[in-house]
Write a structure and sequence with these properties.
By secondary structure, the chain is α/β, with parallel strands linked by helices. The protein is 53% helix and 13% strand. The strands form six sheets. Strands 8-7-6-12-13 form a five-stranded parallel beta sheet, sandwiched between helices. The protein has a three-stranded antiparallel beta sheet with strand order 3-5-4. The protein has a three-stranded antiparallel beta sheet with strand order 9-10-11. Strand 9 and strand 10 form a beta hairpin. The protein is flat and about 85 Å long. It starts with a strand and ends in an 8-residue tail after the last helix.
RNA sequence: GUACCCGUAGCUCAAUUGGAUAGAGUGUCUGGCUUCGGACCAGAAGGUUGCAGGUUCGAGUCCUGCCGGGUACACCA
């Protein structure tokens, strides 16, 4: 994590410290030389709290960075009133140390006062970002790949909101095309008027089963593919019977998918249905053709993308009908008409890297207003036990079944720990834990990585996992609940009337200060996660924080300490709990006070 | 064939966007509850960062060429 001179939004402590460091440097080397300097964190906190690498200065002064660091450490004179209390050169680095009690006061007080707004900033003030994510097909239930999309979409939305943006969460429903016709055809042949209700099957699974069935039928009789295409033609012509069936099966699929969304805790502000506009967009292309932005090749309209270093792309068939990209272009305009976003982010699998680049290039040619602010958040596939996951192969790796299976394991674990819990509470906790484990596991990876997922091996509840963080939170709450000093718990939030009374000099052990310093990084983590649209940055940070907390926990008693230390440490662990709760919330993970 | 992504400890992944001794989890081994929740903590072992060059004060990170894996390149959706 790097701080630059111009960096405006930090927490109060970091802001003061960085400002002071640059003030001190200014006196010694002059304003001119400050420009390119960066302050970073050292690899180990024993080395210092902030570091100035002196390589840039070496060029300016034509001296070795080691000499420069030594000179600076000699020449800089500290003020008594500041946050910085010590400077030490080490090789080409100049290390700054902060005052412990001042740091503790600034950091903990800010966390306490900002409550659940802690870490938020206003970078995105007055800016709207639309995030399109999930985009399911209506022929089958959501599978693991979808869950990666959903968790990413949700968390990125949350993180951007914390960075001050207004976020619109949109979902494109792919509700037409050959895939749904396949399910429909299989249902026509084998359905016998069965319904999800009559069969007691969740409605999207009901539809998905016929999609799988189609595959079986096709193996017996390859000709059936043609029948499906015929069905699609009838659908496009508006055949009433076909439309009725389509509506029925679609509503089953969609309501089932929405149920799953609710279960995994994601939602949307706006749904777009492909069937509403799959033929539109023609006019936009034709207008572009008239303006000579595109060319014609054997009657079809073609976009020349050479200057973008991309393969050319057809935009309309020679018979004048729309292609998939045509509706993509239309949808972009529609989004702008609906919300006028400043930025649009598509969360789509990496297999569409090329087509997304082409889409953005074409929109750029069309001078679409947001074209230059559109981005594709690309993520890799999830393989399950070696095989790429596809519902048509009948592998049961859909989200619903996976969660049900994992819940069983979590319930067993909870019962082991707490034998008196009633069934309902066991189930409630199991759900939160399992979702925490799955979300954290998926978000901890870099999005680009292909994930090899093995339900039994991959998901554990110990180590660097979601439940570990949830446990950390519950553990802290446990301590606070047993305390009697200055804290009250009400409605899952904490209130304290006398932070002012806390003696911050009591927090001077290394275990205390490590924890405090780590807490001070939180706002910068949120900023970074937002800039990169990358929840993994936050996930890694939370783990680091929890680990440092546990180290503290095992060597520093809270409740058994003398009154003043107890009070100070209670405030400290309360702050840790606040940050963990807030951080997990931005990852879409729930916390609970007992687990 | 062309483009993009990936290759780091036995396994799964990190690495402050070019910076200090490449770190975690897991697995293996050793320790730690009459003391705030053991879903925990402390420690040991484990590495030629796929290979070969190059760029510079400095490369896991950037450039070139190989090797291996994945994905995408329709007047499909």
């Amino acid at each position: 994590m790097q701080y630059k001179l111009n960096s405006k939004i930090e927490n109060k402590f970091t802001y003061l410290a960085i400002k002071e460091i640059f003030g001190l440097l200014n006196k010694v080397i002059g304003k001119k030389n400050l420009k390119e300097l960066e302050i970073i964190y050292p690899p180990e906190r024993e080395m210092g709290d902030f570091v100035l690498p002196c390589f840039v200065l070496a060029k300016n002064f034509k001296k070795s960075p080691i000499e420069i660091a030594a000179e600076l450490s000699k020449n800089i004179k500290l003020k008594n009133s500041g946050v910085i209390c010590k400077i030490k050169n080490q090789g080409p680095y100049l290390n700054f140390f902060v005052k412990n009690n001042r740091t503790a006061e600034l950091v903990l007080r800010e966390i306490f006062l900002k409550k659940d707004k802690i870490g938020e900033n206003k970078i995105g003030k007055d800016k709207k970002i639309m995030i399109e994510y999930l985009s399911p097909n209506t022929n089958k239930p959501l599978h693991l790949g979808h869950s990666r999309n959903a968790f990413l979409g949700w968390s990125v939305s949350k993180i951007l909101q914390a960075n001050g943006y207004k976020v619109i969460k949109a979902c494109l429903i792919n509700d037409r095309g050959i895939h749904i016709c396949k399910s429909m055809l299989a249902y026509q042949k084998m359905g016998n008027k069965k319904t999800p209700k009559s069969e007691k099957i969740k409605s999207d699974h009901f539809v998905g089963d016929y999609y799988v069935l189609f595959d079986k039928l096709q193996n017996e009789n390859p000709e059936i593919e043609k029948e499906a295409q015929e069905l699609l033609r009838k659908w496009e012509k508006g055949d009433k019977k076909v439309l009725t069936l389509w509506k029925k099966m679609n509503s089953w699929a969609i309501s089932g998918i929405k149920e799953t969304c609710k279960e995994i805790g994601v939602s949307f502000d706006k749904f777009y249905f492909e069937s509403d506009f799959y033929k539109k967009g023609k006019n936009i292309i034709l207008k572009g053709l008239k303006q000579k932005k595109f060319t014609k090749e054997e009657g079809a309209v073609l976009a020349d993308l050479k200057k973008y270093n991309l393969p050319n792309k057809f935009l309309l068939r020679s018979d004048g009908t729309a292609l998939y990209i045509t509706q993509d272009i239309y949808l972009s305009y529609l989004k702008y008409k609906d919300y006028e976003p400043n930025k649009i982010i598509h969360i789509i699998g990496s297999e569409q890297d090329l087509s997304q680049k082409q889409l953005f290039a074409i929109l750029d040619i069309l001078k679409f207003k947001v074209a230059k602010n559109m981005s594709h958040l690309s993520y890799g596939m999830i393989n399950v036990e070696g095989g790429k996951l596809k519902s048509r192969e009948g592998v049961k790796v859909d989200v619903d079944n996976l969660l049900a299976e994992l819940k069983g394991e979590a319930e067993a674990e909870i019962k082991k720990r707490n034998k008196k819990l009633n069934k309902k509470e066991v189930e409630r906790r199991a759900k939160i834990i399992v979702l925490g484990a799955l979300k954290y596991y998926i978000l901890l990876y870099g999005a680009k990585n292909t994930v090899n997922f093995n339900p039994k091996k991959s998901l554990s509840f110990t180590g660097n996992t979601g439940p570990y963080l949830q446990y950390t939170y519950a553990r802290i709450i446990g301590i606070i609940q047993k305390s009697d000093v200055g804290f009250q718990i009400s409605d899952f939030r904490f209130q304290i009337s006398d932070v002012v009374d806390v003696d911050f000099s009591k927090l001077s052990d290394v275990a205390d200060t490590n924890l405090i310093f780590e807490l001070s990084k939180f706002s910068n983590v949120i900023k970074q996660a937002g800039e990169n649209c990358d929840p993994s940055i936050l996930a890694k940070y939370l783990y680091e924080l929890a680990k440092i907390f546990h180290n503290f926990y095992h060597q520093s008693p809270v409740l058994q300490s003398d009154k003043e230390t107890k009070k100070a440490r209670l405030l400290l662990i309360f702050s840790v709990a606040q940050i963990i709760k807030k951080g997990l919330e931005l990852l879409g993970i729930e916390t609970m006070e007992e687990m």
